[in-house]
Amino acid sequence: MNKFYEEARQKLRKESSAGKFDRYGSAMKTAVVKALEDFCRQSEVFAEAVAHGRSFEECMKAVSKGISGSISDLEAYQRAVKYYMKDADVRFCMEITVGGTATDRKAVEPAEQPVERKAPEIIDLSAFM
Predict the structure, then answer these.
(1) Among 30, 71, 98, 113, whose Cα sits 20 to 30 Å from the Cα of 122?
(2) Single pTM value for the model
């Protein structure tokens, strides 16, 4: 049982609602809170660092620092984790699920024969005007 999870979750939600954020922080804060809540659920040590650590408003300033156009979600989550625990690391795993469940999926082999492709049709769009 993670004894700090609920405290961390409540703190993140309260501070994300009450804080003042720049345009980047405002755009990212909901997704960052969700990711941090998931990380807090996974690690009691991290949950304690969030619950008893610095503010979420300052976290989002650290996440937004140096952004000139955009930042990936993964980079934002990494920066947020580093804000609360400098020595923590985040590993990301992406998986695709195509129909059914994992137990009834079979590997799809590439076609043995090359697929014949037809030349694209050229349509004169002026005919529709």
Answers:
(1) 113
(2) 0.72
